[in-house]
Each structure stands twice: as C-alpha cells, then as structure tokens.
Write a structure and sequence with these properties.
Structural class: alpha+beta
Number of strands: 3
Largest sheet: 3 strands, antiparallel
Radius of gyration: 14 Å
Strand content: 15-25%
Strand order of the largest sheet: 1-3-2
Number of domains: 1
Oligomer: single chain
Shape: flat
Number of helices: 1
Distance between the termini: 43 Å
C-alpha cells in the first residue's frame, strides 16, 4: 500500500499543506496562495519546504521583536 504522504510516491512539489492561522497571526505566506476569511483568519497553502522557511522567518521576527 502506498501512502499519500510517502516521499517515494509523490515528489515534494506536488504536496500541499493547507494551514489556517488565527486572525492576529503575523505568519508569512506565499504570494497568491492565501486568503483572509471574514472573521480575520488566514488560510495559506505551502509546500513542506516553504512552510519550514516561513516558520523560521516567523521565529526570527519574534526574536527581533522581543516577543519570544
């Protein structure tokens, strides 16, 4: 049996992660791959490597800001 998330069966560029961030989130998103809902939440679509980079950027920005 092959799993959808198995790296052997599906190249990374075909994997997509959809994340819904809270309304007050400052998480970076990828251009043209996000939308804001009427309640302020943001839904964004990332490749796994893009999400990893955005999480690192977010962490660095919080450290510079003194929020963490």
């Amino acid at each position: 049996m092959k799993l959808v998330g198995d790296k052997k069966t599906q190249p990374e560029e075909f994997k997509a992660l959809t994340v819904r961030w809270p309304a007050d989130s400052k998480m970076p998103t990828i251009r043209n791959r996000w939308q804001r809902f009427s309640d302020g939440r943001v839904q964004a679509v990332y490749a796994p490597s893009e999400l990893a980079v955005c999480l690192m950027i977010n962490e660095l920005l919080h450290k510079l800001d003194g929020s963490v």
